[in-house]
Amino acid sequence: MFVIALPIIHVHLTPENPGIITLVGALLWMFGFYFESVGDYQKQIFKQHPANKGKILTTGLWKYTRHPNYFGEAVMWWGIWLMTAQLAHPWLTLSGLLSPVILTWLLTKVSGVAMLERKYTENADYQEYIRQTPAFFPRFR
């Protein structure tokens, strides 16, 4: 948790006036928040309908990526890092880069995508979904 929080800790060590990079980071964070929250909401609505039991959500943001909520989470942390990049001392900014890098790695290779998709290895519908839809980075068709 400490490593993930490094950009936030660093910005409090050397407060300065934000600039354009901070604004770009805030916009990136908002984009990630949209993906995470809308993806979670769409999944919640989908699961509420008994007719969807055992089915795969392939509409909305789920049409562009199999894990819009995980993608959004990672983008939010990249946005946080970018917001703090010009506010902290350069070596703090560089060490803070560990945060989004590790979080993205965890979401894609360890806990998020990889762990969730292991439970669908025998599901033919999900295997077709895998062939058509990228796991993490959205592909807008």
What do these coordinates show?
With 141 residues, the protein is mostly helical. It has one domain. 29% of the residues are buried. The mean pLDDT is 90.
Secondary structure layout plus pairing:
Layout: H1 6-13, H2 20-48, H3 68-85, H4 90-96, H5 98-110, H6 113-118, H7 124-132
Could you give a short description of this structure?
The protein has about 140 residues and is mainly alpha-helical.
Give a quick account of the main beta sheet: strands, pairing sense, barrel closure.
Answer: none
Alpha carbon gap, first and last residue: 36 Å
Name the average pLDDT: 90
Q: Uncertain segments of ≥5 residues (pLDDT<50)?
A: none
Helix content: 55-70%
Question: So what's the overall shape?
Answer: elongated
Number of helices: 7
Features:
single chain, about 140 residues, mainly alpha, about 0% strand
